[in-house]
Amino acid sequence: MQFGPSVVLFGFCGIPMAGNLANGFAVGLTAEGFALCQRFACENVPDEEARAVNAELVARLQQAGFFNREPAAPELRSAYLHVTQRCNLQCAGCYSLDDSRNASTDLSTEQLLDFISQLAAAGVASLFISGGEPFLRNDLPALVGHAKECGIGTVTIITNGTCISREVLGELAGFADSISVSFDGYSAEATPHIRGVQRFDQLVDAVRLILEAGVGAHIIPTIHRKNVHDLPRYAALAAELGVTMNYSLLSCECGSEDGLASLIPDKAALEALADELLALGSAPVLSGAPVGLNLAVRTSCGAGHREISVAADGTVYPCHMLHRPEYALGSLHRESLDAILQREAPHWQSKLDSANVEGCSACRHKLLCGGGCRARSVYAKGNLTSCDSYCAFMKRYYDQMGSLLAAQATACS
Asked: What gap in Å lies between CA 357 and CA 349, rounded to an integer?
C-alpha cells in the first residue's frame, strides 16, 4: 500500500495531518498513525503489515482514495448561471454589477436550457442560479425544472427576496432545493449599509413564503467592517425562522473616496469576525460558510477547475467573482462548454495556485485556505498573485481552531 501523488502530510497547530488534494479529505493522526503515513508516502507497505499497525486508519484512508496511484484530474462540480442582468435594486458592492445592468437583453429560454444541459453533461452537481435578480424571469421554474431533469443534484436560487410570489414558489416546489435570500440587517431597525433601504420585514415574509411552499430557505448576510459582531444575531434570526444561513464577505473594488471603502474590514475587524465565527461553533443553522469546522485540504480556490460561472451573456468565467474580459474562458454562443473545458488552460490560470501567491509558500495554513480568494487580490491589488486582503481572517480562524483541537486532543489522551 502506497499513497498516491495527491496526498500531502503536514502539521496543523501541532497536530500531524494527512490530506488528499484530489478530494479535500483531511485526517488528524496520532504519532503512530503519522509514522505509518510517512511510510505510505515513500514505500509500498504490505497490506497485512499496515493493518496490523492501525486497521481503522488504513480503512479510512482507503475509503478516502489516499492509495489511488493515478493522478486525479480536477472535476467540475459547481457552477453559477446568471440568467439575467436585470435587477430592481442597486446594492453596493454587487459582484455581478457591470455596464450591462438593466441595459442588455436577456437570453432566450431555449439558450439557457441548452446551457444547463451542457453544465449537467460536464458533471456539475451543484448549480447556483443568480443574476441580476432571477425572479424577474418568467421562465425561472422551467429553468430549475430542466436542471433537475438533467440530473443536477442541487439547485439553489440566489435572490434579493423582493420579487418572490406564492405562485412562482408553487411552481418551483419539488425542483428548487434551496432559495438563498440576501439580508442587509438582522432586524427592521438595523442600518442597511449595502442596500440603503431596510427591507427586513419584506425579506422575512419572503422567507416564510418559501418555507410554506415546501422549498428550503437560506439567508445570506453580507459581512463587512460595520457588522462583524452581528453574526450571532443573524444566527439567532436563522434559528427563529427555522432556516439555515451562511455569509458572504464584502469583496469588491473601491477607491479611497468610494463610500464602500469604510465598509471594507481592517485587520481588527477580520480577526473579530474569526472569533465570532468560532464562538458559534457547530451551530446547526450555519451551512456553506467560507470557512468552517470541517477541515479540508486544497492548493487553490478551485476557480476554473472545480467551479465555473456563466454570465448573463453566455461568457464563461472561472468564478462568479471574476467576470472580467481578461479572465474569460470562452463563450457558449461560439463554442460548446466541452470545447472550452478541454482547451489548454490560459497562462494566468496557474496563478490561482497558492504556490504562486505572495506570502503563501511559508504560511502554516496554506493547505487549508488554498491561498484564499484570488478575486479579492484582483480587487485590492489588480493581480492574481497578491496576498488575499482577508488573509488575517483566515490566519486567525485557523490558529484559534487549531488551538481548540489541540486542547481537545490533549484532554482525550
From this structure: 12
Cβ pair 132, 84 in contact under 8 A: yes
Phi, psi of 351 (to 5 degrees): -70, -10
Grid cell at residue 192? 442597511
- Predicted TM-score (pTM) of this structure: 0.91
Q: What residues does 18 pair with on adjacent strands?
A: 9, 27
The count of other CB atoms within 10 Å of the CB of residue 304 is 25
Contact 27, 17 (CB under 8 A): yes
CA distance 59 to 175: 37
> How far is the C-alpha of 103 from the C-alpha of 109, rounded, in Å?
18
Cell of 26: 483531511
CA dist., res. 213 & res. 51, Å (int)? 51
Domains of the chain: 7-63 (no CATH), 78-280 (3.20.20.70), 347-413 (no CATH)
Could you give phi then psi for residue 15, rounded to 5 degrees? -100, 120
Between CA 204 and CA 15 the distance in angstroms is: 43
Q: How far apart are the C-alpha atoms of 192 and 373, rounded to whole Å?
A: 26
Per-residue model confidence (pLDDT) at position 253: 76
- 10-residue averages of pLDDT along the chain (413 residues): 95 92 93 96 95 96 93 85 94 79 91 98 97 97 98 97 97 97 96 93 98 97 92 94 91 68 90 89 57 80 92 96 95 96 88 90 91 91 92 92 78 67
Which pLDDT score, from 0 to 100, does residue 55 have?
96
